[in-house]
């Protein structure tokens, strides 16, 4: 895409350097990229999940007609700047892109990046075209800040440092707070802090790093509660040879035990509950830095030394396998700690003469120097899949050049949260180019995610991306100079470049698609080494694989980062509200690629729409099932399939990979140990695991809570004579209340009758015409529940069985107290609880009215809202309403999980209340775009 030409003047009046001669990729001379797009106006209206009120409204916003409703909503609510309702408010995607790209282009001109004004214009137009067409996206801080009156922060990932001094520890608290306040996350290694087994200079015993983690966690939790964008995201790392390593490993698992005990005692331990704040260490991801020495000791069996922080002497020896077992057990119980493989990370380190890599950002993809930052951008891989199912290698190369150029320019104008971070980042210019939609690309081209062919494609694309990035970095070094720290790190940097090139040579191709990509990657690495030897490099780091949460939604990506497809069906938002179920559009394309005829494709797609999986789909050959395997569902990809995919791409990345390896609830501690061990053997830099349902406080989990691994002793069996229960029949006249409800578009009526002296005794449900199967089933269910209540079965017992039950219809309701329901049964028993159980009992089950949730948000005691229930008054105030003709309602909001009959353990979005979904090591809300980590 570019050449170099002399004519630009370097900074500081130094000798003239060559500027970049830009060439066009997507645009045409004399035509502005916006003029080739069909634009349309839309209305964006967002409602409050607590009470259904409108909490955001902007009408007449302008987007390309091919942008989805969801992408336009997220950009409007998150990225448009200016007060809503004022003339200063942005209302068009054109304004947003112009605001950002204008700063990049002007800075590039000022710092001598371009050979001429024409080249600057080409850069400007190509960048605008790529962003408007969702070909790539910068990370969220760019959209938040660039071109505004705010500090021009462009980085989403930060690494801090802390020394064994109280002043340094307090400075760490302050720096984290500043970063969290800005909506970003940071990581830190606490291994320099003396352990609780060592002495202070005064003669007393040191507190140890875990004690200081408590203060930092409380600070992060406080800032999280007051933040408007997302929760505080942080990573805490401790080296495996630290004397307090066992305490660090077990810290969060012990807190899970506390949650269980408090929950069983009746405290409100649900997510967002008033008592959950007593749980500590929940605002950070914890990782252990393991060395090759330790992992070899685990393999062979033997002792491993824990070393004093100041002297380095071994002060205690532990059994390596026993310590490794404790890591696996803690991760089995609560998903922490993850592992970071220290020797592997530092073997691929480009600037070791400056310092070691000790920590990472919260999602583990950015690993570099202390007190540094990284700005991210991700490419939408599916945009390069041509109609003939070949990969557009030439355009991919040109776009990668364009992005790296823009990302490097951004460091020249960027602001940073601390002076130390700014100094390090400007001196080493770390970049983090990555991609999204890999899973969709593989499926569309007929490649199974967990296959040699799929891994070959992923490896080749990653190698090409990083090879082009460093080749462009070497070209930029020839134009505006290498990074400031390059001279002292030239030899190790070039050594790492040769390691990348050697890994590319070892890549074995399987098919024609990956072979063509690999051929170009080989050429790019050869050119990279040649130019790097001559010019040096502009950037100490170039690539990594981030979660791509919010920006993945902005680009309408089906899959995030390196992840496979989450499921085969999804729900598409409609203009005007509501959503509709659709089968992923990559599936018909994949079936066509695999050789199926149109009639067969239609039958298979219809089967998937009905069953959400491909098993027994008519005409689909069993050997093709694996192409449609997903992260969850009927045919979930095995944990080692995720590890092997990470291993296929890791040798071609400057940084690491944000990804959590999910394991089923039935997984054992041995399974987790195997994943951790194989991650080390396969050369990964970092690895995190999550066993389904292991978190007690996790809302809407797939099971009823995890149990401890250790078998319990059989209790002594005693025969106790129990009186036979008797039925307490309802009187002929009793107070009752009828509720009309809608769940996922399905309407129904519930009549609940009580004994005159209080207490629910009868429930009748109507949801269909008399004589229908559904009506019969609901009648039978009503009789069974009613008889059980009259025989003394507590309502709480039914609650525990039916709340969170999942089947269709599901989704949005018309009840302001219960905005979302996973099924009709889930709604009915939540409504019964609100009407017939006292606050204390409901709070233990995590069921609150809209008024109670609002009181919690205001910091008030919801119990103060409670008044004795007058059931006769309720009955009189809620007569059965007659059906009235009305305009057709929009399709109700649906959730993927309600259709799939499974759920991913993930938090509720604190902004809009929607269940989030996994995105790398983080979570993203598909409703509003909020994330729990890097964007």
Automatic annotation (TrEMBL):
Family matches, as SUPFAM superfamilies: PFL-like glycyl radical enzymes (SSF51998)
Cofactor(s) this protein cannot do without: adenosylcob(III)alamin
Enzyme class: oxidoreductase
Domain TSCPD, chain residue ranges per copy: 731-834
Segments forming domain Ribonucleotide reductase large subunit C-terminal: 155-690
Keywords for this protein: Cobalamin, Cobalt, Disulfide bond, DNA synthesis, Nucleotide-binding, Oxidoreductase
Residue span, Ribonucleotide reductase class II vitamin B12-dependent N-terminal domain: 44-134
Keyword Protein biosynthesis (UniProt): no
UniProt record similarity statement: Belongs to the ribonucleoside diphosphate reductase class-2 family.
Name of the protein this chain belongs to: Vitamin B12-dependent ribonucleotide reductase
Organism the protein comes from: Nonomuraea diastatica
């Amino acid at each position: 895409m570019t050449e170099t030409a002399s004519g630009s003047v370097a900074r500081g009046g130094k000798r003239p350097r060559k500027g970049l001669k830009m060439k066009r990729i997507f645009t045409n001379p004399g035509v502005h990229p916006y003029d080739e797009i069909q634009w349309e106006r839309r209305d964006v209206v967002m409602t409050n999940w607590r009470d259904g009120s409108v909490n955001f409204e902007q009408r007449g916003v302008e987007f390309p007609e091919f942008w989805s409703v969801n992408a336009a909503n997220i950009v409007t609510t998150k990225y448009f700047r200016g007060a809503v309702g004022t003339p200063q408010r942005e209302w068009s995607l054109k304004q947003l892109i112009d605001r950002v790209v204008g700063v990049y282009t002007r800075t590039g001109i000022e710092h001598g990046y371009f050979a001429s004004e024409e080249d600057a214009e080409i850069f400007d137009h190509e960048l605008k075209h790529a962003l408007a067409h969702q070909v790539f996206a910068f990370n969220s801080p760019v959209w938040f800040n660039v071109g505004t009156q705010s500090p021009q922060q462009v980085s989403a990932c930060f690494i801090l440092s802390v020394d064994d001094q109280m002043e340094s520890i307090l400075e760490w608290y302050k720096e984290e707070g500043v970063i969290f306040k800005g909506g970003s996350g940071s990581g830190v290694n606490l291994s320099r802090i003396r352990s609780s087994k060592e002495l202070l200079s005064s003669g007393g015993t040191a507190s140890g790093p875990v004690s200081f983690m408590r203060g930092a966690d409380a600070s992060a939790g406080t800032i999280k509660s007051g933040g408007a964008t997302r929760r505080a995201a942080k990573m805490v790392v401790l080296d495996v040879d630290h004397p307090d390593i066992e305490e660090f490993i077990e810290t969060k698992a012990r807190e899970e035990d506390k949650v269980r005990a408090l929950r069983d005692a009746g405290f409100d331990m649900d997510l967002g509950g008033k008592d959950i704040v007593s749980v500590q260490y929940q605002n950070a991801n914890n990782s252990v830095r393991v060395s090759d020495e330790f992992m070899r000791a685990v393999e062979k069996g033997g002792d491993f030394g824990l070393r004093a922080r100041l002297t380095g002497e071994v002060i205690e020896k532990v059994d390596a396998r026993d310590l490794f077992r404790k890591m696996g057990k803690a991760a089995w119980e609560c998903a922490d700690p993850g592992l970071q493989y220290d020797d592997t990370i530092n073997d691929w380190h480009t600037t070791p003469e400056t310092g070691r890599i000790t920590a990472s950002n919260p999602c583990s993809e950015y690993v570099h120097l202390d007190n540094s930052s990284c700005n991210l951008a991700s490419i939408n891989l599916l945009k390069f899949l041509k109609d003939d199912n070949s990969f557009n290698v030439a355009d991919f190369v040109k776009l990668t050049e364009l992005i790296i150029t823009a990302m490097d320019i951004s460091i020249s104008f960027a602001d940073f949260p601390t002076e130390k971070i700014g100094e390090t980042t400007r001196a080493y210019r770390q970049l983090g180019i990555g991609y999204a939609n890999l899973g969709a690309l593989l499926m569309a081209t007929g490649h199974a995610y967990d296959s040699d062919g799929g891994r070959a494609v992923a490896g080749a694309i990653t190698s090409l991306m990083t090879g082009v990035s460093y080749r462009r970095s070497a070209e930029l070094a020839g134009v505006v100079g290498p990074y400031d720290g390059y001279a002292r790190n030239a030899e190790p940097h070039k050594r790492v470049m040769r390691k990348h090139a050697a890994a590319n040579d070892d890549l074995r191709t399987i098919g024609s698609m990956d072979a063509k990509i690999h051929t170009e990657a080989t050429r790019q690495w050869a050119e990279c080494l040649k130019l790097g030897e001559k010019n040096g490099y502009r950037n100490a780091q170039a690539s990594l694989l981030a979660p791509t949460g919010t920006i993945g939604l902005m680009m309408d990506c089906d899959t995030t980062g390196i992840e496979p497809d989450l499921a085969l069906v999804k729900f598409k938002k409609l203009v005007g509200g509501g959503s509709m179920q659709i089968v992923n559009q990559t599936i018909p394309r994949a079936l066509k690629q695999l050789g199926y005829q149109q009639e067969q494709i239609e039958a298979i797609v219809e089967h998937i729409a009905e069953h959400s999986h491909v098993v027994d789909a008519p005409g689909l050959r069993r050997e093709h099932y694996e192409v449609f395997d997903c992260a969850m569902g009927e045919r979930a990809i095995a944990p080692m399939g995720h590890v092997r995919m990470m291993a296929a791409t890791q040798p071609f990345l400057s940084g690491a990979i944000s990804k959590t390896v999910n394991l089923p609830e039935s997984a054992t501690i041995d399974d987790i140990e195997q994943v951790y061990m194989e991650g080390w053997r396969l050369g990964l830099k970092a690895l995190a695991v999550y066993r389904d349902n292991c978190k007690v406080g996790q809302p809407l989990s797939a099971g009823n809570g995890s149990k401890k691994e250790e078998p319990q002793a059989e209790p002594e069996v005693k025969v106790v004579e129990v009186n036979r229960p008797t039925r307490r029949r309802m009187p002929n006249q009793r107070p009752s209340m009828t509720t009309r409800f809608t769940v996922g578009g399905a309407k129904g009526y519930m009549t609940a009758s009580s004994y005159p002296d209080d207490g629910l005794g009868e429930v009748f449900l109507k949801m269909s015409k008399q004589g229908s199967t559904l009506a019969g089933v609901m009648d039978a269910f009503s009789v069974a529940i009613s008889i059980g209540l009259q025989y003394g079965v507590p309502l709480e017992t039914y609650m525990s069985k039916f709340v969170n039950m999942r089947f269709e219809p599901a989704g949005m309701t018309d009840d302001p107290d219960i905005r979302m329901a996973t099924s009709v049964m889930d709604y009915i028993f939540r409504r019964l609880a609100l009407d017939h159980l006292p606050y204390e009992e409901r709070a233990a089950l995590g069921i609150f009215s809209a008024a109670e949730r609002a009181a919690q948000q205001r910091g008030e005691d919801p119990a103060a809202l409670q008044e004795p229930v007058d059931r006769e008054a309720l009955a009189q105030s809620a007569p059965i309403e007659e059906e009235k003709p009305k305009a057709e309602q929009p399709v109700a909001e649906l959730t993927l999980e309600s259709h799939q009959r499974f759920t991913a353990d993930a938090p509720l979005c604190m902004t809009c209340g929607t269940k989030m979904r996994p995105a790398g090591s983080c979570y993203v809300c598909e409703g509003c775009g909020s994330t729990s980590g890097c964007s």
